[in-house]
Amino acid sequence: MTMLSCPFTLYAQQTAQEWNREVTAGWNLGNQFECPAPGQDGESMAIGNPDNADNAETAWGNPVVTKKMIKAVRDAGFNAVRIPVRWQCHITNEAAMSISKTWMSRIKEVIGWCLDYDLKVIVNVHHEKWLESRPYYQYKEENCRKLALLWMNIATELKDYDYRVAFAGTNEVHEKDNWGKPTAENLDVQNAYNQTFIDIVRATGGNNERRHLIVQTYVCNPDYGIYNGDFIIPTDIAGNGNDYMSVEFHYYNPWDYAGSCEYYYWGEPYKQYGASLSDEKTMTDFFDLVVREWSDKGLGIVIGEWGVTDHFKSSESDRIHENMSYYCKTFVSEARKRGFSTFIWDNNSFGNGKEKFGIFDRWKSMNIKAGWIVNGIMDGISTGVSPAVVTLKKKDR
Fewer CB atoms near the end CB (10 Å): N or C, the chain? Predict the structure, then answer.
């Protein structure tokens, strides 16, 4: 009897911790699908589907995403992509939070490209201003209802994807222009968003019953999830425990080095040049706290965004970029040692100063313009070996 080979690879279900450990290095497709409709205020809370909404992916000055871009990311050594998505300007019926078929098809096309190159994928809801900017009891019931409808529609459309695809419930929920310490009210609303997300996605059935789902700390600031004790781990469906959930936070730390450009150096070997007071021990102590607080309870850890904006003195640019490589190597290595997945932020913006997180030049064949970042990440992969996990792929059952 002739045996026929299986024409495709089956991808086995994984726990969240296994999923994260297999992410050697993740990349954000930033400032692309989370843009508002062209001409629309990025802070608008309007829900609808403007005539030009289908062109939103280029509204912040980036070119249309192509399959070659995704391949370039894979070829550079990344094996996972986070796709931030703004849905609120692609809603055809607010009462049902129905999503434009054109927009959904476009998102699915990009997901498909990622899977073609065997990249893990995170899809989220990002810059939903009606949700993110109103973490108040006054809007809690309304927002949870809309969030449930939105995720019901997303999860239903995507439920047949295999377990390489993960969902993240919210993004950086915060009061407008206030990134500081949340109130008890703010925290309670974030917890409600997380539980709503888990409940509705699981209810869509199929692969979604045990899909890797990712919940967030308030404003995705780890400090507001781990120190105040008010982050509530959502309750999953019977039999799942915490095995298929991750906690997400973002890590642009220390901000005085990675974001606000007050310091050009970080880390013990660079103290002589005037480095930030936050150093390797600050980072590893916090990561160990994350392990004790969440990993030891069975949860996965997703660092959904991180990075160092390109800022330098012309006379010291080589040494400063060398320092950025050292930061990236240390960060990725220490995260991988603890089984965390990490997704570098790339907004395709280059220069010297704040918000210059570009890595691949999307306008020039995805040339790597921030080689010091990529080199540091790849060095971190080799030095921060994650614990062995069960392999994802199975050929035949």
Answer: N
